[in-house]
Design a protein that fits this description.
Structural class: mainly beta
Strand content: 35-45%
Order of helices and strands: EEHE
Radius of gyration: 13 Å
Largest sheet: 3 strands, antiparallel
Shape: elongated
Length: about 60
């Protein structure tokens, strides 16, 4: 699992004015799954974003 920090997120809001983040972090398997992870997390489709950074996360967060 990896964590991706994102910025400059643009959402497909269909003319609505929801309050959505322009930057955040998401956890997913790889970069190809970022848009799906964002959509699941916030309930809206994303049109674009910039990956700022990525870090591998441990498989078991309880382990050191």
């Amino acid at each position: 699992m990896m964590q991706f920090r994102l910025r400059d997120i643009e959402w497909e809001s269909g003319g609505a004015s929801p309050v959505l983040p322009t930057q955040c972090a998401v956890d997913c398997e790889d970069e190809d799954q970022i848009a799906d992870a964002l959509s699941r997390l916030h309930g809206w489709l994303v049109s674009s974003f910039v990956v700022e950074d990525s870090n591998s996360l441990p498989d078991d967060p309880g382990r050191t």
